[in-house]
Automatic annotation (TrEMBL):
<comment type="function">
    <text>Antioxidant protein with alkyl hydroperoxidase activity. Required for the reduction of the AhpC active site cysteine residues and for the regeneration of the AhpC enzyme activity.</text>
</comment>
<dbReference type="GO" id="GO:0051920">
    <property type="term" value="F:peroxiredoxin activity"/>
</dbReference>
<feature type="active site" description="Proton donor">
    <location>
        <position position="131"/>
    </location>
</feature>
<dbReference type="GO" id="GO:0045454">
    <property type="term" value="P:cell redox homeostasis"/>
</dbReference>
<dbReference type="GO" id="GO:0015036">
    <property type="term" value="F:disulfide oxidoreductase activity"/>
</dbReference>
<keyword id="KW-0676">Redox-active center</keyword>
<feature type="disulfide bond">
    <location>
        <begin position="131"/>
        <end position="134"/>
    </location>
</feature>
<dbReference type="InterPro" id="IPR004674">
    <property type="entry name" value="AhpD"/>
</dbReference>
<comment type="subunit">
    <text>Homotrimer.</text>
</comment>
<feature type="active site" description="Cysteine sulfenic acid (-SOH) intermediate">
    <location>
        <position position="134"/>
    </location>
</feature>
<keyword id="KW-0560">Oxidoreductase</keyword>
<comment type="similarity">
    <text>Belongs to the AhpD family.</text>
</comment>
<feature type="domain" description="Carboxymuconolactone decarboxylase-like">
    <location>
        <begin position="101"/>
        <end position="176"/>
    </location>
</feature>
<dbReference type="Pfam" id="PF02627">
    <property type="entry name" value="CMD"/>
</dbReference>
<protein>
    <recommendedName>
        <fullName>Alkyl hydroperoxide reductase AhpD</fullName>
        <ecNumber>1.11.1.28</ecNumber>
    </recommendedName>
</protein>
<dbReference type="InterPro" id="IPR029032">
    <property type="entry name" value="AhpD-like"/>
</dbReference>
<keyword id="KW-0049">Antioxidant</keyword>
């Protein structure tokens, strides 16, 4: 299956997802590295095997080996960070915020790619994982780096489409059983 096959596998009742996937992968003004890194990290965060298999293969073909590895690192790091920070934020006992995290996240300091791309990917994963603390942090970082709101919004636009494709295709697979 290719990107085109993935789009074709989206059921007709979700035709807008097909159009949206086409738009975010083909009509974006993002650099190829920023775009395909975002597609890869959100495919990982979607937890959909079919979406990850197909979009992961597309991303591998379009990214340098360094960017492909850095994007996977962003997804892995944010999987930890999003759960940790979201939980601390949601607990009513604010004393947890005063405790040190004690979690290693050294890749954030040296991601192996442009730091803005890495922060963009981290924002996209945080959107899928629903961590407001991480969303705020990475959005501020991107805005300080000069991205306007429309550019920042591309991260969570891609995240929402990739996630929705995964949800839809996984539901179809289960319902077809």
């Amino acid at each position: 299956m290719s990107l085109d096959s993935l789009k074709a596998s989206i059921p007709d009742y979700a035709v807008d997802l097909r159009r949206n996937l086409d738009a975010v992968t083909g009509g974006s003004g993002l650099s190829p590295q920023r775009l395909w890194g975002t597609v890869l990290v959100t495919a990982i965060a979607s937890r959909s095997a079919v979406v990850l298999r197909e979009l992961g293969a597309e991303a591998r073909a379009r990214l340098s080996p360094e960017a492909y590895t850095a994007a996977k690192s962003a997804a892995a790091t944010m999987a930890v960070s999003n759960v940790f920070h979201r939980t601390r934020h949601l607990l009513s006992d604010r004393e947890y915020g005063a405790l040190g995290a004690g979690l290693r996240m050294s890749v954030i300091g040296d991601p192996g790619v442009d730091r803005v791309d890495f922060a963009f990917w981290a924002l996209a994963v945080s959107a899928v994982n629903g961590c407001g603390v991480c969303l705020d942090s990475h959005e501020r970082e991107l805005r300080r780096a000069g991205l306007d709101r429309a550019a920042v919004q591309e991260a969570f636009k891609i995240a929402s489409v990739v996630h929705a494709v995964g949800v839809t295709l996984d539901a179809e697979a289960v319902l077809a059983e």
